[in-house]
Amino acid sequence: MRRLPVQLLLLWGMAAAPAALSALIHPHRPSWTGEALRPDEITAATAAAWGRQILWVDARPAEAYQRGHIPGAIHLDEMNWESQFGAVVDAWRPGQRVVVYCDGGRCQASRQVARRLREEVGLPEVYALKGGQDAWLRVAR
Amino acid sequence: MAPRGALKWAILLALRFAVGGIFLWAGATKAWNPAGFAEEIEAYRLVPYRLGVAGAVYLPWLEMVAGAWLIFARDRRAAIATLVALLLLFIGALASAWARGLDIRCGCFGGAGASEPIVNALLRDVAMLGALAVVAWSERAGGREKRGESGAAADTLPA
Fold this sequence. Notes:
Structural class of chain A: alpha/beta
Oligomer: heterodimer
Largest sheet of chain B: none
Strand content of chain B: under 5%
Number of strands of chain A: 5
Distance between the termini of chain B: 32 Å
Order of helices and strands of chain A: HEHEHEHEHEH
Strand order of the largest sheet of chain A: 1-5-4-2-3
Strand content of chain A: 5-15%
Number of strands of chain B: 0
Largest sheet of chain A: 5 strands, parallel
Order of helices and strands of chain B: HHHHH
Helix content of chain B: over 70%
Shape of chain A: elongated
Shape of chain B: elongated
Radius of gyration of chain A: 20 Å
Largest interface: A-B, 40 and 40 residues
Helix content of chain A: 40-55%
Number of helices of chain A: 6
C-alpha cells in the first residue's frame, strides 16, 4: 500500500496529463487572454440560465441585425439611438432584465448601449453580454 | 460473509458507485466543453480570469480520475481526500453565490441541469460529503480490523 502523499501526487498527475492536452488541442478550449468579467457584464451561461426573462437588445449595425439576430432581439445601435430606443422602452416589462450584445469579445457597442440604457433611459437591470453573439451561439448550440 | 457483513459491503459499494459515478459524469460533461465551463466559473465572480480558465481545464479531469479511483481502486484514500476537497470547494462557491444573491446556474454538469436551483446543488454536495464520510469511516475501521487480526496472529506464533 503506497503512502497517501504519493497516491495523491499520482492521482493529480493522472488528471494533469489529459487536462494539459485538452488546453492545447480541444476544439472548445477556453481562451487564456480574455478579460475578467465586469460588474455590468454577464456570461452567456448566465443568460442561458435566465432564459425567457431576458429582453435582448442587438447593438450591432443594422445590416448585421438584418442578416440574423438572437430570436426576439430588438435593434438599437448608437447611430440610430433617438429613433430606436423607444422600441426598447415599449418592449420592456417591470422586473425584466435587459441584455445587450454585439458581435464578439472585442466589440464595445454593447457596453456603450447598456450604459446609456441604464443612465439615460433609467432601466434598472441592463447588462452587456460578454463575448457577444458568438458566445451566445456557442452556449445555445 | 455474514448477512450483516454482506449488507454493509453492498451499501458501501453502492455509495462508492453513486458518488464516483456522479463525479465521472460531472467531469465528462465539463471536459466536453471547457470553454463553457470557464464561463460558468467566471459567472461566480470569485477567482481571477486565468485561474478560472485553469480550473475549467483541470477540474473536470480531476473529477473523472478521482471518481474512477473511488470505484475501482483498492486503496481509496487519495480519491476520498481529493473528492472531499473538491466538494468543500464547490460547497463554498455555491454558498457564496447564494449568499450574494447571484442568479447564475450551478455549472455542476456543464450545460446539462441548467435550470437546477443552487440550493439543490448545495444539498446534493452535502449528501455526497456524508456518503464519503461513511466510506472513509468504514475503510478506517476495516484497516484497524486487519491490523488487529494480523497483530493477534503474530501473538499466537510460537516463539
